[in-house]
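New to this. Please check this protein:
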Amino acid sequence: MRVTTIDRFAPAPGTVVQWAVDATASTGVVSAIPPSFNQSHHLASAAADPAGESTWLAASFDVDGPVDLKAIERAFLSLIARHGTLHSGFVRDGGRVIRHLHDPAALRVIVTAPRTLTTVSAVRGALREGLRHACTPFGGPGCHLATIDRADRSTILCGFDHAHVDAYSMAIVVDDLARLYAGYRAEPGAFDPRILPPAASFVDYCAEEAGDDRDFSRHPGMDRWVEFFARHDRRPPEFPLDLGLAPGARARQAVDVRTLLGPRDTATFAASCAESGSSVYAGILSAMAHAVHDLGGGSEMPVLFPMHTRRSRRWENAMGWFTTNAPVTITVETDLPATIARAGPAVREAVALGEIPIPRVLETIGGLRAGRTDIFMVSYVDYRRLPGAHAHDLLDAHHISNVTSADDAQFWISRTESGLALRTRYPDTAVARATMDAFLGGVGRHAAAETLRQSTANRAT
């Protein structure tokens, strides 16, 4: 799975067809299930800036030959019916946000006329415009489908408003949609989509989240949360190097996508981390902390990191926004191996803190103080462990995000069979560009140096 952004996505030209979901024939059933915590924050941000760029996620994959348009449309509708969050939506009623549940059988799709586009930029522009119109937080289900038809090999893309999906969901949609499309193409009148493994509904997860009345005030991890935010004056930690923005200012988002380590070096780096009981994620966080320290950012790097909440098998095939956050502080030691050895236990302890729901943390600390809109975070996804991973390379699968605006730095580390890659989102200022050039170069050098050190040690033994 290649993690990228729409401005970097470069599919070959072809004939573009796009579908949006039409919910006008479905009145929808008003649901008493409130939005999840993540959804509430997302919807509040969208309501506060209705003219802003939508935040969507999309996945793409390739298929042999031209696209069977009837088969892919049926596959798209089956995907929507399969996942509860995809046939739900949100409407504003005064100051309230209400969830509507739609009968998937009542949903229709609006399809555009085919457009033969001859340049990569024209294809990218058409996809971006289609996603912008369809993947919105309010109204009907924010889902979009597009195909780029070619004689030899074609591309299928499916996008969603962020309210309905997370990074893990992008692996699920590639796996589900590829299998559904292959089934409907091979057996147009006989394929039964129920042969796919069962998928629970994220709407049910939201109901469980809303009904969770456990008392976490005496949880041993709550004191750690309180201490973490007390050290930062109840503000989420910010990227510790200068990004050239005044307080309250935002800038157009800049993007960096790079390979950190190839497959062999990633395996070596992983072995080095494992020797001290640490993970690859702890190792890259350590390399980041050293890069910050090299540039004058201090010897501690506090950060919040997202982690998925699919803690039971019930949710493993479910599309939805199954994430929470956990706090960790990486302390720079005398060298990178020592830092990694200390970071491993720190990350494991932080993961345990993620079991406390964020709303309970915010209640305990009295809420967060206003700071930057974005949160400095470092995400890690090992796509090799997600549904359908065995076919990602064969399908040339991509996880694609929109490009909007930014006021802090955010990082997505992805591990695949091709190694370790890093996507970075940051404000596009001259200072931030120089900072990121130096910082990301430093991260790569520290990771490579540790790989070389481990390789040398292996040869010596």
About this structure: The CA atoms of residues 17 and 153 lie 15 Å apart. Residues 430-460 form the longest helix (31 residues). The mean pLDDT is 95.
